[in-house]
Amino acid sequence: MHDLSPAKIFSGSASMYLAEEIAQNFGVNLGKTTLTRFSDGEFLTSYDETVRGRYVFIIQSTFAPVDNVFELLMMVDAAKRASAYKVAAVIPYFGFARQDRKDKPRVTIGAKMMANLLQAAGVDRIMTMELHADQIQGFFDVPVDHLYSSSIFMPYIKSLNLEGLTVASPDIGGSKRANVYSKYLKTDLVICHKTRKKENVVDEMTVIGDVEGKNIILVDDIIDTAGTIAKAADMMMDKGAKSVRAVITHPVLSGPAYERIRDSSLIELITTNTIPIKHDCSKIKVLSVAELFADVIKKVYNYQSISSSFLF
User: Fold this and answer.
1) CA 30, CA 13: separation in Å to the nearest integer?
2) What are 105-133's pLDDT values in tens digits?
3) What's the pLDDT tens digit per position in 161-206?
4) Among candidates 75, 171, 62, 90, which has minimal Cα distance to 121?
5) How far apart are CA 134 and CA 146, in angstroms?
6) Where are the alpha helices (H) located in the chain, listed in sequence order?
7) Would the CA dihedral through 282, 283, 288, 289 be positive or negative?
8) Residue among 8, 86, 194, 214 flagged as catalytic
């Protein structure tokens, strides 16, 4: 067991905004690093302070571009080579998680490859939030702390004091997640059924359940191009819903997403800061995950149970 000398928290360039808030909640200053970029596109990561014998937490979400992934891997490698006691990769948004299986011939399992790369770099622990598929934890041979955003979203949903509240899943795959919200909030549950002809394009959608006169909360882990959420919100309003909100953990928001949200029937998109919001949008409400991550980092560092940090 280490002597509990102060933990050190560092950040990759993509998550600096969040890491500063996590470090503040933890009670330490964010560690100093340097990222040197060369004219050919290569880059070099280095620590500007000693990490010898320290428990190092590196915060970096792995959203696009893929440089963010490689920067995290290099930071893990640099910490191990500088004799850090242990290195934990804190990945609020775990990129490539949607590639969790072979769903057609001759494709990669990107999430497993990510796990292999992180372990090859020398990571001792993974801390992440709302994986697209729970079984990704099994891709790792090191401990994985899988946090849920429900502990952040539930109090906000309750504060809205909505009558006739109904939880909805935008697709069959998310029904388990929506069911947990429904049970906790003691509401009805409806499910959307969608078909796709190609990725990121919804072809047809129907709703299973009654939405007439209800205040709908759509629950999902990722919003990418916002096609599914916008279509679901518009369809539910057409079927007589009183209002539609979306509660989604990771705001990938690529392509026409912001325009679709703005033009949709959604009253509000409630999300987190695991990925930074690129454009202002009056419909987007961001709740911070910093306090939750700081609390779990503190408990892991002090060898305390983290089960109390999970709502489900």
Assistant:
1) 12
2) 999 999 999 999 999 999 999 999 999 99
3) 999 999 999 988 888 899 999 999 999 999 988 776 666 565 677 8
4) 75
5) 8
6) 16-26, 67-81, 110-121, 150-159, 175-185, 227-238, 257-263, 290-301
7) negative
8) 194
CA distance 185 to 90: 30
Angle formed at CA 102 by CA 68 and CA 114, multiple of 5 degrees: 25
d(CA 119, CA 310): 25
Question: What b-and-e string marks burial along 123-135, b requiring 16 or more CB atoms within 10 Å of the CB?
Answer: bbbbbbbbbbbee
Q: Any long-range contacts for 194-200 (C-beta under 8 Å, 24+ apart)?
A: 194/170, 194/228, 194/231, 200/224, 200/225, 200/227, 200/255
Q: Are 125 and 89 in contact (CB under 8 A)?
A: yes
Show the tokens assigned to 23: 């470090």
Take residue 149 and report the two structure tokens written for it: 């955003």
Burial class for 309, CB neighbours closer than 10 Å (0-12, 13-18, 19+):
middle
Q: Is the pTM of this model over 0.85?
A: yes
Tokens 């009805």 label which residue? 188
Contacts of 162 (CB under 8 A, 6+ apart): 215, 217, 243
Q: Is 214 known to be catalytic?
A: no
